[in-house]
Amino acid sequence: MEAIKRTTPASEAEREAIDGLLGPGEDHLGRDAIAGHVVRGRRHLLLPCLHALNDRIGWISPPAIDYLASRLGASPAEIHAVASFYGLFSLSPREPVQRHVCIDLACRAAGGPTEHSVDDGAHPAPCLGLCDRAPAAITIGGHDPEPDPGLAAVDRANDDVLLRRVGSGDPVDLDAYRADGGFSALDRARELGPEGIIAAVEASGLTGRGGAGFPTARKWEAVRTQPVTPHHLICNADESEPGTFKDRTLIENDPYALIESMAIAALAIGCELGRVYLRGEYLRAHRTLSTAIERCRSAGLLGSSAGFDIEIIRGAGAYICGEETAIFNSIEGYRGEPRNKPPFPFESGLFGQPTAVNNVETLMNVPSIISEGRRADRRLFCLSGAVRRPGVIEAPIGITLGSLIERAGGLPRGHARWSCRRLRRSGRP
Amino acid sequence: MTAIDDTRPEIATVEAMIDGVTVRVAEGTTILDACGGRGCGIPTLCYGETITPRNACRVCMVEVEGSRTLVPSCSRPVTEGMVVTTRSERIDHSRRMVLEFLGSSVDLSLTDHVEEWNAEYGADPTRYGPEAARVDEPVRIDNDLYVRDYSKCILCYQCVDACGEQWQNSFVIDIAGRGFDARVSTEHDVALPDSGCVYCGNCIQVCPTGALMFTSEYDMRQAGTWDEARQTQVDTVCGYCGVGCNLRLHVQDDSIVKVTSPPDSGITSGNLCVKGRFGFQHAQNRPTAD
Ligand SMILES: Cc1cc2nc3c(=O)[nH]c(=O)nc-3n(C[C@H](O)[C@H](O)[C@H](O)COP(=O)(O)O)c2cc1C
Ligand code: SF4
Ligand code: SF4
Ligand code: FES
Ligand code: FES
To answer: Which residue in B58, B174, B192, B203 has the most chain A C-beta atoms within 10 A of its own C-beta, making it the best mutation to test that interface?
Structure first.
């Protein structure tokens, strides 16, 4: 590789942001003394480094890219290719604090701006997963990013399973979670062992809630039996489908349940480090989950003594990174483009090793399956737009659209007649 | 004296059915190669002679029994008992869409076979109308040796892989941006002379669309003097060093107009360095009149 010497070096703040993750920068002699594979083995830190630059400086400058390239043993063109892939990053100068304003469906219906009418200096954004609070906007960047406002709205019912704890007290109160029976499913899972866990999940009929509906037990069994180690678990929390905000609601309101679910899944597949790939725009969920993970580590529920730990990887504004093989590339520090299948993730996923990817809602089904032998026959629905009470609703699979809309308070006044008239005029039955 | 064991290891083979015909091929053979490789009738764009394809173009899709989705024949290895169909309504529809999407968004006029494929699959790239999104960029002329015209680029990744880990290991170009804004780019889109480019021209050699072109060819095309019918090709050996790379000189009217290397050359696999690729002018400096 030909190193091109550019005139401006990275600024002190840029180097600090990067060195904070990669360790102090080696001088030229020092760098040569470090084996190339050690340097290149840090490539998975590229995405966190880009976030560090973006949060602190506001954009990714050419000298910062050159410096990153030298620290990661990659070429500047490769780093530039990755940085330019993500919607949350900018390659031209801007302020460290950025405002992203939703221009998607629910927000437009609630009077939000279009791509061309967002305020000067704000970025038009696809659905931010805040449709229950349309029109929505978030602020990213700066030293202490401000989480988006308020918790998600939910329509709670007494027989809720997945939403059971939502809206009941402080979501990061570990004692309260334990007093409510938290971590008893994990204890039970330890008694059952991997095969017992998988059998219970199989019996529950649980299928993936991330879209493809693949039987969860089959996925876990395939990973569990792979001879290659380590095995990886990734919780897919990249939720970017316009109009969807159920995974955010779960993480913001019940983070310990996700941690417990992941611990059980990890037991089943034989994994020691689980990763949550969290949508970059979900700042409140990030803060809540980080706090919960920290508290679990202090309590010995995560970390080396527990034999399992969880790491959060922040996405950076790319819908496609919710696709499971694109997640692998993104975490590994490459452009988040999907890979070819086969090979399938269960045999060759993250770092080419056996990997189970599961959606947040899928995982959140697991504790009650393990402790109560429940059937997985309930789902979360996100209602927004023309309903009186937008929010997340838990209901049995098979519920009609009409009943869902009723539970969301029905259509606002005037709306139903207007749409019926429209339908009649368009000549549809 | 130890006897030399010259029995060859037996090559594992697999049997499959392609378009109703039973074939037996070595394990690892792709469906496309089992069908006869390039020119076998299955269209290909991102599948080059010397590059392992990224299956970015999706024009080579075929049906495999039991597979929900169509399968890229250039990359999917044949497995035991596989049943493959290379032509069906679904396949034709997919190829037609790919040809129309590509043809409506970039200039494929210099891409081999596209016209015949459009006719064969009934593809009409103009059917999205004049408003269809189109990559329309000025040709990048930033050095004396070759030009880059990304209005012709189908983002096939071949130049990226030729420059990077598959051949040159220079990693000077990569695909930057996303969606319609994705472009082959140097870091920060700097001009080639400001990048780490070593002008090996291996990217030009693999480009299937003419997006990357010798300046000599570009200038002649602009002047209307480029005429492949008048050209001959002469294979020779590069005289610059002792490696002995095979050169293929493209000659028009007694002048070398570009240099390639035979992709099947055991020495070069189509790759050269800047001297072999571009250092031909000395061979044809004519004495001036007086
Ligand atoms: C373009 C695309 C985007 C996707 N986005 C998500 C997503 O945001 N969250 C998610 O859980 N699954 C998403 N998926 C599905 C995942 O690839 C994968 O099937 C899923 O996470 C598996 O988990 P499950 O079995 O628990 O559903 C997406 C798939 C595609 C093709
Ligand atoms: S000429 Fe060689 S070094 Fe330059 S971009 Fe092409 S492949 Fe890379
Ligand atoms: S420039 Fe040519 S080789 Fe490179 S991606 Fe574009 S079409 Fe492919
Ligand atoms: S947040 Fe605006 S549409 Fe979802
Ligand atoms: S030739 Fe197979 S995908 Fe391009």
So the answer is: B174
What are the pLDDT digits (tens) for B139-154?
Answer: 999 999 999 999 999 9
Q: What is the CATH number of the domain that holds A133?
A: 3.40.30.10
- Residues of chain B with Cβ-Cβ distance to A2 below 8 Å are 170, 172, 196-198
**Looking at the domain covering B146-284, what would its CATH class be?**
mainly beta
DSSP A52-80: HHHHHTSS--HHHHHHHHHHHT--HHHHH
- CATH number, residue A211: 3.40.50.11540
- Give Cα A55 to chain centroid, integer Å: 18
Which candidate in B187, B197, B200, B274 is best for mutational testing of the A interface (most A CBs within 10 A)? Answer: B187
Mean pLDDT by 10 residues, chain A (429 residues): 66 96 69 66 96 95 96 96 97 92 94 93 94 92 60 74 89 96 97 98 98 96 98 98 96 97 98 98 94 98 96 97 98 96 96 98 98 96 93 94 93 67 48
The parent domain of residue A24 ranges over 12-83
Does B120 contact chain A (CB < 8 Å)? no
Residue A197 φ then ψ, to 5°: -60, -50
**CA A214 to ligand 1 center in whole angstroms:** 11
- Residues with Cβ within 8 Å of B233's Cβ and at least 6 positions away in sequence, in order, are B248, B249, B250, B251
Residue A16 lies in a domain: yes
A304, A218: one domain:
yes
* Residue A219 sits in the same domain as residue A292: yes
